[in-house]
């Protein structure tokens, strides 16, 4: 068998800062690699997530100039965990402001999970700006995906954990967890809010792992991580990710001319392969790679191999 590719060596940003994007929001960004090399942008998951040091390591630093940033309300961006003026359309506009800040005409768009949603939405809004699109763990923001996560689907794979997820809610709210969690996460009881945030974030941590991972669950249990993830993710899902039902599939023709690689774990319990398969049917030119021993996380061996081979493939284009 061919040896699987893994991360490039650890790298520190050569430049970082905050960009005022308006509406009271300031976006944290950093750049890694070689100034003037092939441009790329990394779109993190969630909504409400962020990025870590390992996310910088998916590109050959000699051949790429990569911008990573934390979306509105996330990580080091301010105001923290804010829901005000925080929609998909705002994020698309922020990406364009960041591109202009960098001085790029075009760049490679790379995103996984919610980052795949945002990558598709951004590229469809600005198809002239994407040189390639690299996606992982496809999520459209459609109704069946919410039902998979919060009604019947992941709950049948992890019934014990789903029971823990619902336990913080009153009985009458458990048939609509998104709405019931919203009431707590935007309420005045700070102690209950943090409990709910940790329950929401833990459920996310459970569904993204192929095998049990205490380190992953600890990350999702961190108070700051949990609060941003739960509040922002719940906000987006409550509003259908600010997209029309079926929008991203319906608009695939806008981007079919752009080279695309889709890396999807066969056993992904967070964003199951159905969406990746539907995207491939609508976009036959895309290279869909279903990883037989893969789950959801980008750093699983088979998933990471596919992503790094994709960035290497496009490094000279």
Q: What is the typical, i.e. mean, pLDDT?
A: 96
Unreliable runs, pLDDT <50, ≥5 residues? none
Q: What amount of the residues lies in strands?
A: 15-25%
Sheet/helix structural class: alpha/beta
Please estimate the helix content. 25-40%
User: Separation of termini?
Assistant: 28 Å
**CATH architectural group of the largest domain:** 3-Layer(aba) Sandwich
Order of helices and strands: EEEEHEHEHHHHHHHHEHEH
CATH topology of the largest domain: Rossmann fold
Instruction: Indicate how many domains the architecture comprises.
Output: 2
Please, how many helices? 12
CATH superfamily annotation of the largest domain:
Alpha/Beta hydrolase fold, catalytic domain
CATH class category of the largest domain: Alpha Beta
| Biggest beta sheet summary | 8 strands, mixed
Rg, Å, rounded: 18 Å
Q: Which word captures the global form?
A: globular
Number of strands: 8
How do the strands line up in the largest sheet?
1-2-4-3-5-6-7-8
Helices and strands in order:
Elements: E1 15-22, E2 25-33, E3 38-43, E4 64-69, H1 88-102, E5 107-112, H2 114-125, E6 130-136, H3 143-150, H4 154-157, H5 159-166, H6 177-185, H7 190-208, H8 214-221, H9 223-238, H10 247-250, E7 260-265, H11 273-282, E8 287-291, H12 301-313
Helix pairs in contact: 1-2, 5-7, 6-9, 7-8, 7-9
């Amino acid at each position: 068998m061919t040896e699987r590719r893994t991360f490039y060596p650890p790298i520190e940003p050569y430049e970082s800062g905050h960009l005022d994007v308006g509406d009271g929001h300031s976006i944290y960004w950093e750049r890694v690699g070689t100034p003037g090399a092939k441009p790329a942008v990394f779109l993190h998951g969630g909504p409400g997530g962020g990025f870590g040091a390992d996310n910088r390591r998916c590109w050959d630093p000699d051949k790429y100039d990569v911008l990573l940033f934390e979306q509105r309300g996330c990580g080091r961006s301010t105001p923290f965990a804010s829901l005000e003026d925080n929609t998909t359309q705002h994020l698309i506009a922020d990406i364009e402001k960041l591109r202009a800040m960098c001085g790029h005409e075009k760049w490679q768009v790379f995103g996984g999970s919610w980052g795949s949603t945002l990558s598709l939405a951004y590229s469809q809004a600005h198809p002239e700006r994407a040189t390639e699109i690299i996606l992982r763990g496809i999520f459209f923001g459609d109704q069946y995906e919410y039902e998979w996560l919060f009604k019947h689907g992941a709950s049948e794979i992890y019934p014990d954990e789903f029971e823990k997820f619902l336990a913080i809610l009153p009985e009458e709210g458990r048939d609509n967890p998104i709405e019931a969690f919203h009431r707590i996460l935007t309420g005045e009881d700070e102690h209950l809010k943090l409990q709910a945030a940790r329950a929401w974030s833990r459920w996310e941590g459970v569904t993204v792992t192929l095998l049990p991972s205490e380190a992953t669950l600890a990350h999702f249990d961190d108070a700051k991580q949990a609060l941003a993830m739960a509040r922002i993710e719940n906000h987006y899902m409550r509003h259908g990710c600010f997209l029309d039902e079926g929008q991203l599939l319906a608009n695939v023709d806008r981007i079919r001319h752009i080279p695309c690689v889709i890396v999807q774990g066969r056993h992904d319990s967070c964003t199951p392969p159905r969406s990746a398969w539907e995207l491939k049917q609508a976009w036959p030119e895309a290279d869909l790679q279903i990883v037989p021993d893969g789950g959801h996380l980008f750093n699983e061996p088979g998933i990471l191999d596919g992503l790094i081979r994709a960035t290497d493939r496009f490094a000279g284009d």
